[in-house]
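ok trying this again, last paste got cut off
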Amino acid sequence: MPSVTTREYNPTTGALVGNVSSVNFGSVVVGSHSSVRVLDFAFSGITAVSNIKIGVTGCTLDVNESPEDGQDDGSAGNGRLGVMHTDAFDKSLATSMLSRHFAGTNDTGLATNANNVRIGNRTDTVSQFVYLDMEFGGNDVGVASGTYKVFFDFE
């Protein structure tokens, strides 16, 4: 049976911090961005993984009211929840606000949803590094929460 392990990396050094079951952006000052969380997805019980996608399946914030500057991977140039991905760890991405974002919420919960972002592979069973951040707008008050879902094909 295939399984996925989410691993978090130190955004300054790129060193593996450990396996995680949730991503916590910590306290975010109103009108600013969170720190960037760096992850990858390691797959076991399979020979190879392909067509990896990540989507926001629920969020208390408006993910993206009007997506602009869409790219081939499904990301947008604007939005509230940042997402970028690279083959090699990139400290410059990990230590600054992300410039690509989710285009919206995956409200169907399906891999085919247009708001998912496609992520490549570093190896047959490991995804690219994934960078996530969050913007907490001037009108946002209280606690924000959400759910990410990973989709993939495997052999």
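PB: full thing came through this time. The domain at 3-21+32-154 is CATH 2.60.40 (Immunoglobulin-like).
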